[in-house]
Design a protein that fits this description.
The structure holds two protein chains of two kinds. Chain A is an alpha/beta fold. Chain A is 29% helix and 29% strand. Chain A has nine helices and 18 strands.
Chain lengths: 322, 249
């Protein structure tokens, strides 16, 4: 028996979520009194691979195959299900991001394994195997019983703390046989924004809403984000107006994020917006309307016009950094 | 080519969720039911593709797994413009059950493109679309924010962390759709509502499938502490709280 965890890298470095996933997998393995096997697909060097051991991965299966350079959900799930069988995995942990959402359901069918998606805590119970998962876009949480022998859990990003439990990990290089007929996804073009802080990976997010009044007013918000090492985001009306790109839209139908700190500037806090940000650890709201619902979700609030408050806040951050 | 759009029947997204039967189910009293937002966007894009005579898309069918009570949501999809509908006559027990039922229908009735919303706003599972594709052994593309057809080939934009990829896959395939696929959901016009009444809804009885998961209890999210207000002229105080109380900067 083992707990299998699928990790992800970005240009050869593990994403933060990979360490969260391994920390979580280690927690599950402790409950089951078993070991953690991590799978890495991509070009990741040994020094980086071994870092997974800091969070409790006993064994790291390293796959560096040209055939898997493109995310093809059929090929990936075929490879991972093969490893799951070989490692006799009883629980498989994957991120609840776009990649995880592509792989987990296919893996589920291959292994006849029930999926608990968007879990944010360790299993509540082992018998029956019960997980705590987000439902109704964060307005409710469910206790979900998974009845199958193998269980797949997808972990909500930034919902589980990194826990260092160093072990001596062994690295096993693997060259899986890949059925060429499964490789049907052809990449025509990639538009990557490199060098930026990934919104879904960011510890701090500064986000603007309609209260910013126009696309031209974003300068101070971006400056504040830079000073704090934060990613930038926006509410739906802002991306619909074309003031900011769609990939910044956070909310029910946009990105769902859970940073340590979410600073909402000029965002009223409609239910649909809160659905995307309510798992943030701390929310700061800056809004001119003292009755705006965002203040019900926030721990800290400033009542005032965004364009007047932002410059003062920027000055204060600069002062703090001195 | 034929498109199948999978639709889920969900509470309106502004609904205040309440529980019933000792927190084991959701209290459906007074709930307004709607087409799951991502499914509605999928349907809109499917209809746009059908309207475009160069796309090669000839028909748009919707499928729903649910009891007779969800007929109004199916009629709404027909009113928006779907040509016909299929309802698998079963109460959906979990994603595995739903995906297995839909896959079973697709095996009998050929479709070239199957579109599913990336998640439903009730269970937030994000699994049905991927399961359908694996049950059928066909490709799936996840987090799709754009789709068009050129010379019979699907050109798909998918969202990846920090960017986008343009990919192509051969038909048949499952597109798992997210925001961006269509600008605004299409709204039913009066003519569409009239026409929807006479459009065919095919009833299919479910196959025997045992669900793999079951929700046994619901709970509310932990309420947050009341908001602390800081004077707009003393932002340093906010930073002090963030640094020393919340410890997040």
């Amino acid at each position: 028996m083992s707990v299998l965890v699928y990790t992800e890298n970005w240009d050869g470095k593990f994403k933060k979520l990979s360490f969260e996933l391994v920390s979580y997998a280690t927690g599950v393995a402790k409950m089951l009194n078993t070991t953690v096997t991590a799978v890495s697909i991509g070009k990741v060097d040994e020094n980086e691979l071994i870092r997974l051991g800091n969070y409790g991965a006993n064994k790291i299966i390293n796959i560096n195959s040209d055939k898997l350079a493109v995310l093809d959900s059929q090929a990936y799930s075929s490879v991972i299900s093969e490893i799951a069988r070989k490692e006799n995995a009883s629980v498989i942990i994957i991120s609840n991001n776009n990649t995880g959402k592509a792989i987990a359901p296919r893996l589920s069918v291959r292994l006849k394994a029930g999926v608990g998606s968007g879990v944010s805590r360790l299993p509540l119970n082992l018998n029956p195997f019960t997980v705590y998962k987000r439902t109704y876009s964060g307005n409710a949480f469910a206790h979900l019983v998974i009845k199958s022998d193998i269980k797949i859990l997808t972990l909500a990003q930034n919902s589980f703390d990194l826990i260092e439990t160093p072990v001596n990990a062994t690295i096993e290089n693997m060259n899986p046989s890949i059925d060429g007929s499964l490789l049907k996804t052809v990449i025509k073009d990639i538009q990557k924004q490199s060098g930026m802080i990934l919104l879904t990976d960011a510890d701090i997010v500064v986000s603007g809403g309609r209260g910013m009044k126009s696309a031209d007013n974003w300068g101070p918000l971006v400056e504040l984000a830079k000073l704090l090492g934060a990613a930038t985001a926006c509410s739906r009306p802002v991306s619909d107006e074309g003031w900011r790109p769609h990939d910044e839209h956070t909310g029910q139908t946009g990105k769902i994020i859970a940073p340590n700190l979410y600073i909402a500037v000029g965002i009223s806090g409609a239910t649909q917006h809160l659905a995307g940000i309510s798992s943030s650890k701390y929310i700061v709201a800056i809004n001119s309307d003292k009755n705006a619902p965002i203040f019900e979700a926030a721990q800290y609030g400033i009542i005032g016009d965004a364009m007047k408050v932002l410059p003062k806040l920027i000055e204060a951050v600069k002062e703090l950094k001195k | 080519m034929k498109i199948l759009v999978c639709i889920s029947n969900v509470p309106d997204t502004t609904t205040k969720i309440k529980f019933a039967e000792g927190n084991t189910s959701v209290d459906t009293t007074g709930i307004q039911w709607v087409i799951n937002p991502w499914d509605e966007l999928s349907l809109t894009r499917a209809l746009e593709l059908k309207d475009d005579t160069t796309s090669g898309i000839k028909s748009v069918t919707v499928i729903h797994v649910g009891p007779a009570a969800s007929e109004p949501t199916i009629r709404k999809a027909l009113a928006i413009g779907a040509d016909d509908a299929i309802r698998v006559n079963a109460v959906s027990s979990d994603a595995w059950f739903v995906a297995a039922q839909i896959a079973e229908v697709i095996k009998k009735e050929q479709f070239d493109v199957i579109m599913c919303g990336i998640e439903s706003s009730d269970y937030n599972g994000s699994i049905v679309g991927g399961m359908i594709s694996e049950f059928l052994g066909i490709p799936s593309v996840s987090a799709v924010s754009g789709i068009k057809f050129e010379n019979g080939q699907a050109i798909i934009i998918r969202e990846i962390d920090g960017g986008k990829e343009v990919v192509s896959v051969p038909v048949p395939f499952v597109a798992i759709v997210q925001k961006g696929i269509a600008k605004e959901p299409r709204i039913a016009a009066m003519r569409g509502i009239m026409m929807a009444r006479s459009k065919p809804v095919k009833l299919v009885e479910p196959v025997q499938v045992d669900p793999l998961t079951q929700i046994v209890e619901f709970e509310k999210p932990t309420p947050r502490a009341a908001c602390k207000f800081i004077d707009a002229d003393s932002p340093a105080l906010l930073l002090d709280l963030l640094q020393n109380e919340a410890k997040v900067i």
